[in-house]
Every structure is written in structure tokens, then in C-alpha cells.
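pasting for ref. prot 1 ->
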Amino acid sequence: MNQHHALRLLIVEDSADDIELLQHSLRTQGYVIASAAVDAAPSMRAALEGQEWDLITCDHSMPNFSAPAALAIAKERCPDLPFIIVSGEIDLNLAVALIKLGAQDYVQKSELIRLGPVIERELRDAGLARQRRLAEDKLRESQELFRAIVENVRDLVAVLDTEGRRIYNSPSYRPLFHESDIRQGSSSFREIHPADRGRIKEIFHRTVATGVGERAEFRFVLGDGSIRHMESDGQAIFGPDGKVSKVVVVSRDITELKQLEAELRNMAATDVLTGLANRRHFLDRLEQELARVHRHHGHRASVLMLDSDHFKQVNDTFGHAAGDKVLRHLAVLMQDELRKVDTLGRVGGEEFAVILPGADLPAAEVFAERLRKKVAGTPAAQDDRMIPLTVSIGVTGMKISDASADDALVRADRALYRAKECGRNKVAVEV
């Protein structure tokens, strides 16, 4: 394994034998390790404050410490640091609960051969997350810069009578509208998007009636048919009789801000590599679907968990760039098979999940089998070679008895592991 530096590994463990076993396993898997071991809260805090780490592994239960306590410290001090449970026997529900609290994965001590690939996946995902944060910071910086510019450019200023007819327009209107469209006495509502016009009229007349200005957002339709998003503030002007005689409306163009906000929302919900829903967004959609199952008697929905078989071999044989290409290839294949109402997400390194609203278990199984065959029959192109691909799929239905979406996800995950145990390239169902 090529690395620019040794893996800086903080091991939370009280057994010297288990520490040595873990280190030995990782060395045999190609890792160069620079590690330290702690077995109590004070020493863990000191280790986190004393240097930077790439990853934390943690035993589940120690005489004076526990994985939940260690996880809490890690999230407090280094919230983005990957945290992996490495334990003997551990209850599946407890492992799921720890993952919900922020742990990335769990590996049993009897299966340390899995630890290397898990670490590799988490280090790569952490790198992608850092790239995403840098992109988000750049977008925020652009947004703040744009706000500063907007506050200092010449806004659109209009003076209107109490019926919304134009008395005065600032010169800044002229690049947007023909002079005849904004002439004195013309209606200021005519250029507003039809879907927004009634609401803006209501706000305007309320300002005239109460004398209290309001902020509003709406869309202008320009002469060429293009749309601009605007934000306006109304200010009532009172006549000698104390009644509102005019309204001054100051508007500014926020179209680019709206686009930036949409990009930020999309980034927060999207997996950087594949463009699919990320784990957090997928789980939100899963909770929404479970709420529909609870609300509407007879509503059916199913969940699929999919795992790319022998994905590590693809990385080892063709390189990580090819592995990324394979994941994008799988994403496209699966998206082509989905309906608009379905949700496909990347929930782990090479793990995907699908929500099928309205699909009962038999229909979901048929869909999963069709998907399995589609993947098996569509290898990925890599230079002048083709990479054969298969997926293992676990299928389950969402139940009224499910307390949370995790209940369905755990069942689908169990079915997935059963499909892999049966030789991979299989579909397994958990009732």
C-alpha cells in the first residue's frame, strides 16, 4: 500500500495482547503504523490534544472506559476523525447505535482482516469530506463577497402611489426593462412573475393600509423572458393628513445568491464521488418514507442494500481511480432502473441503498433480481479492458412496527450479508 506517511493510529484498548494483534494485522496488510494506546478518558484527551491523528480504533468495553465514552470525547475534540469500533463480541443493535452516534464502522477482533479495507475506505471518505468542506467554504466566501457587493451597488428604487403605479424609477431599472415598460403611471406589478404577483400585491396593499413596510422575495420576468430573483423592502411615506400617500420600494437582485444557496443545499445532500444522495440525506428520506408507512394504512415500501462484490480487488488490480470509476458506473446503471419516486444513495465506501415507495416485498425482490442481472451483464470499461462487476443485494420491507428507519436498514443489511455468505452475486430477502 503506497502511503506518504505512516498511519497515525490512536488505539483505545486496555489489552496489550490485543494491541499487538491489531498492529500486527495492519502491518501484514501493508500499513506502516505510528500508534499510541490509551485506556482511559484523561489519557485519550491528552493524546488528542498532543498531536494529530488519522484514525481512532476503540474496543467496546474496558474496565474503566467504554466505546460510547471514547466516542463522545472524540466527537468533542476531533469531530471529523474516523472512529472504528474493534471489539470481541458486540451486539448488532449496539453497534448500530454507536454508528448513529458517529462511529464509522465496527470490526470484530476475530475478523481483523476486514480492518485494513475499512480503514482504507474511511481515510478516502475523510479525504473526500475535506474536499467537500473546502468547496463549501469557497462557496460561502463567494456568497459573503456577493452580499457585500449587493449592499454597495445601486439598487432598484421605485416610488409608487397607493395603487402601485410608478411615480419614479431609479436609472438602475433601465438595463433591465424598456423605458416604455417602466414609464411614469405604469403598473409596478406587471413585470412580476404571475405566480408571485398576487402575493406581492397583497403585501403592498397591507403596507398602504398599515403603514408598516415588509420585506418580500419575488421574481421579475424580463423582456427577453428570463427570470431574475429579487428581494425588496417597502417603506411607507405619509402625507400631511397622516395617511400613506406613497410607498418607496428598494429592490435588489438576489439571483446569484439563490443559485449559491441551491448549490450549498445540493452539496449538503449529495455524495461527492457519485452525485447520489449521501448517507445523511438517504437516512432522512428513509425516515420520511417510514412516516408515510405509519400514517397511511396499506402503504408499502421496501429497502435494498447493495454491495459491490470484490471491490477491493478492483482497487488493488486497477488502482483507486478505476475503483472510483466503477462506483460511478454502478451509480449510473442503478439510476437507469429507478422510477422518479425511488431514492438511491451511497451509504458507505462501496455500499449503496435504495428506497422503493409503494413496492411490497415480492415486487422489491423482482426489482433487485433485475438490478443484479443488469450489473452482472454490464462490465465497466477501463482503458482497453473490461472490469466484470457483480453486486450482492439485501431486500426488506418497511413495517408499521419499525420504531425508526434504522430497523429496516438493519434487516436489509442482514439480508445483504446473507447474500454475500451465499457466494455473492445473489439477492437475499429478510422478512
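and prot 2 ->
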Amino acid sequence: MFSDKTILIGITGAIAAYKTCELIRLLKKHNANVKIVVTPNALNFVTKTTLETLSQNPINIEQFDIKNFKPEHIALTDESDIFIIAPISANTISKISHGICDNLLTSTFCAYKKPIIIAPCMNTNMWENPAIIQNLEVLKNRGIKIIEPDSGFLACDTQGKGRLADINIIFESAKELLLPSQILKNKKLVITAGGTKENIDPVRYIGNYSSGKMGIALADSAYKLGADVVLISTFEVSKPYKVIVTSDTENMYNSVKNEFKNANSLIMAAAVSDFKVKYKSEQKLKKNGSTITLELIENPDILFEMSKIKTNNQIVVGFCAESQNLLENAKTKILKKGCDYLCANDISNKEIGFSSDENEVYIINKNLEIQKINKDKKTIVAMKILERIYGRS
């Protein structure tokens, strides 16, 4: 199940640390590569030998145990697919919610941008403390998955809420985040990526700065969700699904029209040129000391044309990149184009603009209702776009 996944387990100083051994065993049983980072206090509750034996990996404890000139907290972040901290104490919850990095586990958390699950364990009075409630709310708002503790008999000889959640619940939560449900199984999605190029002569073209990263992320995510993906890209890329390479807008239009006939959905993530050169030179243009005037004519409007011919059973999703008045322009565009959804992003923000690995989008539907997907890696944003448009099973 997890044969290609590396799962990072964090353990803090809480009495339920011994239960994490069962979680490690369960993950190993399903072929996961398990790495472990602990706080020094965690080793008061479970031994280093036990954890190393179960995980078959060395345990990470020290903040500055640097290997190969790479800080350990960054190495752990890069090498794993998900971070599960179970149990997590009130002390560590308070630290990570405020960005404190005073040990290897908290430093790793601060650097981690992939999915994170935390499973608290503490005395009932601590769980109900207003500071802990507020700190957990902060983490929840930052997208951290929190698995609340169970109620029952506690180690402090009291009854109440605070026991570490059932290990199987933690395992299933990890499974849900790592192995997306096949919500697009038996559905064909046509997805475009990259920036089109309109030739001026054999060596020059009119183009744009699109890297195609968002379109590729969408295609990869759709494939993971079970879709029959056809990627229509402006550049060569090796993928396990069908890829059609086109260069200019007219060729992309013809490819999209042909593939969309029997598709369930089209996602137009490519940056398509609105204009092309009316008279392309068959030979390289030479400088002759004078000016050159290029006459431009409109290209086919792929999004508009596909929205016009789509059936009631087909979904068309467009993208728009705006440098000002993002939502106003996006609302105007979706009404003009007639697509079902429009994903709008602000290219004036250099952190999420062209070539960036991150994005932040607003999804607008025909009723002009807006959903925001906060800034994150394009791979994560792509999955969230698909889940919000097509739903989770």
C-alpha cells in the first residue's frame, strides 16, 4: 500500500508514546519506509532500541546532527511524504503553534510543507486549557490535520478526554492523505499546459512566460485520482498518461477539439496566445536598418469555443492570470467565456507568478461563488482544485 512512501513519525514526551510502536508496526506491515524523529523527553517513555528495531532506521534526536552537510531537519523534510506527530504533548503543541524551533522535531515541523497529522495526548485539564484550545485552533487554520484524543481512564488516575486516539484512526488518516480516493476513475480529463508560441519567422516567435507547472501538476493529480488523462502540452514531457505536444494556439485548438469529443472534462491551464502573426516569414528576417511591423490577428478562443459546444454532461474549467483587479476581471471572464469554473491567480505576486513552484487561486463558478485555495505548492493546489470541483468520495 505504501511501498513508494516515506512516513516521518514524530514522538514527544507523553505517556502514550509506547502506543506509537503499534503505529510504526502497522505502517511497516503496509510496506512504508518509516523514519522517526523524537524529542529528548520522548525517550523517557519509549526506548531508542525499540524504535530503531521496529522502524529499521536510525532514530533522529539531535538538532545539529548534520550529515552530508545537510541540516537534519531539512533532510527529514525532503525525504518524507507526510509527518505524523503521535503523541504530541501540550508543550510541543504550544511551541509549534508559535514557530519555536528548540529541538529537532519542532525545527522539522517549522520547515515542513507537506501534509502533517498531529494526535494530542494529555491530561483533561490541559486539553481544556484555553491556551491549548487557542493553539490547536491556530494549527487547524494552517491546514494541520488534528486527530482529537479519546475519552477514558488516564494515566493520572482520572477519567476524561486526553487519551491518544486509536492507532487505526491515525493510520486511516494517513492513508486518506497519502492515497487519494479514485474520484476520477473512469473519467477522461483533457488538460492543457504551457505557453503557446506564435511564429514570426523560422527562429522567432511571440510567446509568454508560462512554465506549464500548474498544468502538469493538474494532470499528475488527475492521474493519481484515477482519471484517464490526456495532456496537451507545448513542450515534451514523459508521463504515464497520453501526452500530445502542440506549439501554437491553432494546433492546440484542433487537438483539444478532437480529444474533448469523448471527454468528461476539459481543464484549460495553458497560457494561450490571443493573437498570431498574420503573415509569417518563411525565411529568417534580417536587420536592414529600418523598422519591422507585424500585423496580428486573433487566434481561436479555445475556452469559449469548447464551452459553446460542451454537453450537459461535460465540465469545462478555465484559468485566468491577472495582474490587477483579479476577482472583478475573473467574474467578467467566466460570464463571457461560458465555462463552468474559472481558476484565477494573481501574476503580479512574484511568489506565485510564472515559473514559481507555488500558487494561490480563487475558484469561481457560474453563479459567481468564490472559493479560495491558499498559497501552497502547485502540486497541493492542483489536488485541492480537483477535489473541490469534482468532490471527494
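DSSP finds 13 helices and 20 strands in the chain.
The longest strand covers residues 315-322.
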